[in-house]
Amino acid sequence: MSAALLNLDHRAILRLKGPDARSFLQGLVTNDVMPVTAGRAVYAAMLTPQGKYMYDMIIMADGDDLLLDIEAERKTDLMRRLMMYKLRADVTITDETDLGVWVSLEQPSANGVSVPDPRDAMLGWRLVTAEKPDAPALERDTYEQARLRLGVPDGSRDMEIEKYFWLETAAERLNGVSFTKGCYVGQELTARMKHRTNLKKMLRPVRVEGGAPEEGAVIETAEGKAAGTVRTSNGEFALVYFRLEHEAATLTCDGKPVILL
């Protein structure tokens, strides 16, 4: 039986084509794009000079081209920023409106570009294709709860633009940063945070007994101190922007017990 698939209609694809495609992107994003090959993707982000999140992406290979799996709502802004950096680089950036992004918790058999999710292998596979796959439907709630349980953010739904430092998003655990690749925008501060600073906040997955609350709900300690804020949630699971000083505390949200995962 074919693997069940879910269309992520809030995602879009940009194509980078040309002899300078890799070197162009290499100088802009947090991860090393050189290992990207057929069947192997890379998770990366573009940051502010201060090391804060602007855009994240999953980078795949389609022949000699690179495909960027990105947020659809922010596609125009990202294209504008990429064009600003393009200068004389021999690279063409196109909006692949005919391509859709699909996900499966198992390896799909459909035609297209398919890769294991580079952030966490337990989150299954990504498929980019122009066709609607002939496969059973994966329930959105099933996928969302798997994503939240694993602590994988979904773009600006979970990461506040120009507010969260990249390492606060669990980017290192999710294979979203290289500390050996060389320079990119925001690299200096990101490296300094890795080697010289203890992070005070982090996106953390939680389970809320009785059902997770909506975005913006506050996680509290037994003493009533604010320990974190819910970003996205589904079922009993949520991603929380969490103050790490409260890791050992007894936590609740709207009176419900909260367990850090």
UniProtKB/TrEMBL annotation:
The keyword Transmembrane does not apply. Keywords: Transit peptide. Residues 200-258 form the CAF17 C-terminal domain. InterPro entries: CAF17_C, GCVT_N, TrmE/GcvT-like, YgfZ/GCV_T_CS, YgfZ/GcvT. One of its GO terms (biological process) is iron-sulfur cluster assembly. Residues 3-110 form the GCVT N-terminal domain. PANTHER family: TRANSFERASE CAF17, MITOCHONDRIAL-RELATED. This is Uncharacterized protein. It comes from Kordiimonas lacus. The lineage of its organism: Bacteria, Pseudomonadati, Pseudomonadota, Alphaproteobacteria, Kordiimonadales.
